[in-house]
User: What shape does this take?
Amino acid sequence: MRLSDLVQKLLSLDGAPFSLKGRPYLAAVYNTLPHRKLLKCGRQTEKSTTAAAIAATAMLIQQGFRVLYVTPYDMQARQFSIDRLSPFINTARLKTELIVDNVKLKKLKNDSSFYARCAPPTAANSESFRGISSDFIIVDELQNMRSDDLPAIEQCISRSKYKWRLFCGTGGTYGSPIASIWYDSTQCEWTIKCKCGHENPIGIDESNISEEGLICSKCHNKLRVEDGRWVAYGRPDALWLGFHIPQLILPNVDFHEICIWQQKYSKAKFYQEVLGLIYEDIEQPISPAVLAKCETDRVNGIQSREQSFIGIDWGMEYRSRTAITVGTFISPSKFSIDYIMTIEGEDALDIDKVISQVIHIVTSARAKYVLADFGVGHQVNLMLAKRLADVGSYLIEALFVGSHSYRYKYENKYRRFQIPRSWCLSFFFAGLRQGRIELPRLDTVPYFKDEILSITAKEGVDSVKYESSTTDDTVFSSALCYFLASYMTGKIVY
Ligand SMILES: [Zn+2]
Assistant: This one.
């Protein structure tokens, strides 16, 4: 029996049999392989109910099935446990007894169990889920999770024979983990073919919204949700099966209300919360307040660390400068930028001199890996790589690419990363905004403050474009440094 039939046969909701009526898009969500599934949803799109229905059914029909639910905040974990899961189990038509019924732990007589945990994005270390061996992990409100908690959460199913993952969230910003996983997914959109022949993927923009309901974006004829089907717009062989569920395809959705929100909400709020899109419209991605929060009393300079990482943004042309950033993780969730320096003027043009300076920094900072941009510096990179090898360090090159269809790709053969420029900045900005990056006293750092505050973002769906009214080399060298350290210490899996 298919899972979508099974949940309706077994479960009840609000005193009536649980029903998926009017939700044709949910059949595939239930019935596809459960190994890596992502639901990218608008608010109030029943994502927690769906997760709870799958969890409750699996716990009921399988002996000793273990579910781990992780969400950023305690309140959400409680709500899921009390308001979603318990009612399903208590009223199920397959009688079983809850022998333990706590908010954070439930055990059934058939030895199935449920754990609820929270992983706050700001906590120094959230270890509460570590060591919980489970068969099915549900990560909710993914847009607010820290990406470096995800590998640890996934460890919890490493010994299971099921290894189910269901990650859900509301559209977040470009730098959030839900964006990364979405780009790595099949990116399925509920697509309705109009009588005029036009294919309408619903909720990727505002073009199908009218006061009267869904309309074709081309001929403006009315569309019916039940005429839709899932179409994968990402790679069909992607690791993750990704479904986008905007509010627009829910049964009984009030389009008058949707149109009011369209007027009333900011574009970002409407796109993220109603349409469930990854959307970024922050004019100034990093504000002075965010910078002030990250600033420490430490003077800009190399610190005594066990190991550091170095990012370089070359500037080998007239009037440009080379920026070098040294940083390291001082705790699992805190990255310290220790030193940002620039070489400019005549000095920047003397390649031998620049390389000698870099080698000096590398040895003082005990840096094993250096990530340098590819740009105009490939010849310089070859020279630097040779000199680095002499001191037992390695050069990796960063080739900036425009595409956002993947986040980054490591090419072992060339020892280089292909990194979308905006993604690299978004990743760095997200770290600053989440308070995960410490900066030296900014009046001791050349250029950085002015450069980062002069960066503006152009709004975009599923993408963002950064522009700068001045130079941005110290920001780039720092973004490269943070990316390299995160990658090398296994903090970015997605
Ligand atoms: Zn049409």
Remarks:
- The pocket of zinc ion is lined by residues 194, 196, 198, 216, 218-219, 221 (CB under 6 Å).
- The chain has two domains: 3-187+234-245, 288-488.
- The radius of gyration is 25 Å.
- The chain has a mean pLDDT of 89.
